[in-house]
Amino acid sequence: MSHGILTGKQQGIALLGAMVIVLLVSLLASTLFNLSGQEVVSARAGNQGAVAQQLADAAAELTVAWFHDPQSTASHPQLSLLREKRQHDGEGGPSFFDLNGRSQFAGTSEQPDVALLAENPADERLLNDPEVGIFRAMRHLGHVEAVKVYAPSNPGLLCTVDATIATGTTLSVKQSVLLQLGALNLRPLKAAVQVTRHLGEFRQGSESAVRVHWGNLRVGETLVLSHENDIPTKSVMATVTGQSYDETAQREDRWMEAWVGGQVLVTQPDPEQAPGLPSNIHERQSPIPGVRLDQWTYEELKLMAKRFGRYFAIDREGLLYPQGVVEAGRGLSPDEVLRSQVPGDQQGLLFIDTLDQLPPRVDNLGVLRLQASYLEATVVMQGHVHLNPRGSGATLTALSPPRTDLNDTLVRMPVQLSGIQLNGVLYAAGNITVTGKTKMYGAVVSNGTITGIDSRDVLEVWYDHDMGQGWFRGLPVVHRAPGTWVAKY
Predict the structure, then answer these.
(1) Spatial separation of the C-alpha atoms in residues 168 and 164, rounded to whole Å
(2) Of 17-21, 115-119, 193-197, 203-207, which range is least confident?
(3) Are 106 and 98 within 8 A, CB to CB?
(4) 331-334 long-range contacts, Cβ below 8 Å, gap at least 24?
(5) Whole-angstrom distance, CA of residue 204 vs CA of residue 226
(6) pLDDT of 99-137, one tens digit each?
(7) What is the spatial distance between Cα 448 and Cα 436, in angstroms, rounded to a whole number?
(8) CA-CA distance, 459 to 211, in Å (whole number)?
(9) d(Cα 406, Cα 260) in Å, to the nearest integer?
(10) What is the distance between the alpha carbons of residues 50 and 171, in angstroms, rounded to a whole number?
(11) Which of 247-251, 455-459, 465-469 has the lowest mean pLDDT?
């Protein structure tokens, strides 16, 4: 009897224990389920935060791109303010900074210089419209709420870019990032051709080998011409075409003027022409008022090339060595390096140093031989250049300098240039020697002189007006300042 009662009690205790275990397991499972759900939510939120941060960073980077692409901002007056250089440097050239080095961007986060806010219908369309919005490619991932540009917090920098993004899901996450931009401080080239010494020698066959369209010619010393019409007359009625002077009956240009420090001499004057020079040729400019030649400093360009372009050493045979490391058997011919396949194949800034990689002197200048059929680059040679392109060059569309139309509006005419072999800048610390006929779009600077082997050798240059504003293709207008990226929230 007592044994049966004891067994029942034991069974009851066992059942109660089992129920407690089941309850504990249920509570544990419920807790684990809740924790799992919270982890999923947390993971989703973290993922959305990462997406939002990447989108905000992309929005800021696209703002940086606006400085480099005038077409992307041309139809938006507020954005056009980004590229407009409203200050002037010590030489009177356009600049983002005043003479004290202060940026033209002076606003704050609350009152920025440029502000695009999605809460404004016009800005919302500009930013996020699925058809025409600047950020329409990111629309499936997020929504740009604001882009602001205002003063930098670090002296010497250009501006702060502030971009805010919200992800486009039900679990929306906002992210705002800041970054500061520096500006490339490369002096504008305000003339088509600039020569520090004389240009041409006073004997037949050795006169100036240069022809200039759309810009100025600047010569530090004497200019020697074979005929008076080697310099085109300046006329507002001149047609704007891509024809060379040998293809036209009358040599005229809307923008060309010659500024010469010394005399202008003519070896074969026309006896039927009245004495005196055309009004667009200005001789005896030195010492007063002087001929201003745009100079790029050695150390500044060298550092710039190492950061934003390509830097080469050169040996006495004219072989190039990347990063300035000269090793036997590792040299590259200029044809391997200095070549573009088609227009748009931009090689950027190419800096070729002196033989000893020290500032240029008379005894340390190498010789660069340019023979590529087409090259699109800013070539800075700390020595001499032999220019002898082999091939017919390329056809490209260039914009003429601004001219006033019937409505007194400045317009730039698209012109097709054919047979162009150099597109960009050719800057030489020494002399430039031309063999054959070379056609170029851009600007040329020689700290020595430009000569031809004989009278048939000609360097014909169409000036790129953008270079007078400090815009050089293949070089960044602005760049991220290291260590300035910050995620606000």
Answers:
(1) 13
(2) 17-21
(3) no
(4) 334/368, 334/369, 334/370, 334/371, 334/372
(5) 7
(6) 888 999 999 999 999 898 989 998 888 888 888 777 777
(7) 20
(8) 6
(9) 34
(10) 13
(11) 247-251
- 3-class secondary-structure state, position 34: helix
Q: Which of 13-17, 296-300, 374-378 has the lowest mean pLDDT?
A: 13-17
CA distance 445 to 447: 7
| Cβ atoms within 10 Å, residue 375 | 26
Contact between residue 208 and residue 200 where contact means Cβ atoms under 8 Å apart: yes
The CA distance from 267 to 380, in Å, is 33
Alpha-carbon gap, residue 216 to 445, rounded angstroms: 12
Residue position matching structure tokens 């039900």: 170
428-449 pLDDT, tens per residue?
999 999 999 999 999 999 999 9
What tokens does 338 get?
Answer: 């200095």
Q: Computed over its alpha carbons, how large is the radius of gyration of the chain?
A: 33
Distance between CA atoms of residues 34 and 305, nearest Å = 58
What's the pTM? 0.82
| Partners of residue 450 on adjacent β-strands | 432
Count how many residues are written for the chain.
489
Q: How far is it, in rounded angstroms, from Cα 256 to Cα 405?
A: 19
The answer to whether 223 and 199 have CB atoms below 8 angstroms apart is yes
